[in-house]
Input
Amino acid sequence: MHEISYSEAIREAMSEEMRRDSDTFLMGEDVAVFGGVWGVSEGMLAEFGEDRVRDTPISEAAIIGAGLGAAMMGMRPIVEIMFGDFLMCGGDQIVNQVAKARFMSGGRARVPLTIRVTTGAPGSAAAQHSQSPESWFMNVPGIKIAVPSTPADAKGLLRTAVRGSDPVLFFEHKMLYSEVGPVSDDEDFSVPFGKAAVVREGSDVTVIAVSIMVKKALQAAEQLALDGISVEVIDPRTLVPLDKETLIQSVAKTNHVVIAHEAHRRSGPGAEIAAMLAEEAVEYLDGPVMRVAARNVPLPYSPVLENSVLPNEEDIVSAVKFLLQP
Amino acid sequence: MDSDNLTGYSLELMAHLFRQMTLVREFELRAIEERRGGLIPGFIHSCVGQEATAVAACAALAQEDVITSTHRGHGHLLGKGGDPKFMMAELAARSSGYCLGRGGSLHIADFDLGILGANGIVGGGFPIAVGAALAFRMRGEQRVALTFFGDGAINEGTFHESANLAGLWKLPVIFFCENNLYGEGTPQHKQAPIADLANRAGGYGFPGIIVDGSDPIAIYQAVQDARERALAGDGPSLIEAKTYRFRGHFEGDPQVYRIPGELEQWRERDPVPVFRSRLLKSGLFDEKTLAEIEASVQDQLDEAVAFAVAAPLPEEGEALQGIYADTHEGLVF
Output
């Protein structure tokens, strides 16, 4: 094990895969000389050169579509989109081209393309630089969605994405980049898609938390433990595919569930998870499925306003207490 | 025709161009007939009138080169070596079709032939071609990517992004515009402030060439030149072929927008009969030879339709297959 940050974990995964496979390369806005505006690819230009660490024009559709074309030709591109909010500039390429290429061609296309993108509110970045757009793409069959919350998961899921044969949207939360944690030294260490992590075991209530909300759920669990409430925290780690089994097993044990994500409440990832539980686990539930999420307004600039919109650990505590009230 | 000079081009090439142009024309007419007859359930955007652009552009490519195609893509696919049997079966929504009945006319692809896909999205193919060309460059392969598009697609943002990126990196891309004077139901002059779309190339630092879209030899030569330029590392070219769509945007289109008299004028430049006459006039081909080629095309299409009719329909459960390569123990499908 070694201790590294989430950001370093992502860089390690990329660098190790690029050393291993000459068909893997990184391309995006400011990824080379700048090292990525979040510093994730710092130093990679020096090691791999400008052919394999490519600065691009600000052209999201061309970046994503070129990743698709290169992938179709047998490369394993990693493309970086600086903000999740900018995915829509390349929206057609993701939704109509990347996600559908394999199916439409009768399974002939192979698209090993990883789209790395930031998600979440970094603080006062306002409405076009703060969104959590994961669920926009959950409604599009053909693309997988990873949402790592720890350095180990970031590294392990990214390796699975890059070595896989399908397109992946890989959402990196901006406020997790500096989080430090233990990561395996195994050069093939990976985390499978569709396997949720039971991050904390508990017996009274399940909190299914996505991305940065895992951290907040753990804080809430500590606080609730003081009141004698035992919280189980589950991190799905990938939203597509979704590990329904682990989620349902936990709910079967605790009979109460709160779903927490930073995406907007309406039709966020929690809507899908709640519907799934309603269909497949309703007999285990002793109360409503609760959601803790951003309120349904564009993310505001002022910290006062922003904090009133974003979900936090207190919201999780309140939701749990509401559920467990006698 | 501007140039009656066929000198320097092989008989084999001319026969190939004539045969494939005839195949495209007759494939389209047969598909339209079979759609009316109920064999084909979906859209058909026919390329009748644009046979020379599709066939001659592909003829100038090597087997290992790739193309991206469009909603009006049957000619491109046949030009690049697509098999009419599998195309017809796909149009007929059969599991023996190119896409196993999942794609239809708009999504036919054959990666072994370098066909990276027709496309249902106008302008959708540009970035894909740029990415393929990037892969060729990174791997040091002597291959080019040709992206077909229409006068409508050149106004999509993806054209700008892709032309800029390909020009910047001097990638081996050929932007091949079939300017057929209509973007769906609106004339080209109501969609762009310039008539010669090749002029846009200058903004991306590469040449723009205009060719007669009814002249397969001129098209072949322009693409061959662009290919040589691309392989020499000098970057992309934009070729604008002036052509005309003889039928509606889609079959069943009432075509209320068509400018009166225009179609009749363009019929005089119909690429298939014009090239036929030219070959006869040149003395290089006689009537019997050309008639034999035409008969062989009809035989091939009879076979294609028979194949499609006999091909099995997909099983319902097949809709859940082939979305992902890795299914994670069945968790995604």
Q: What stands out?
A: Residues 46 and 195 of chain B are 23 Å apart (CA to CA). The domain at 11-320 of chain B is CATH 3.40.50.970 (Rossmann fold).
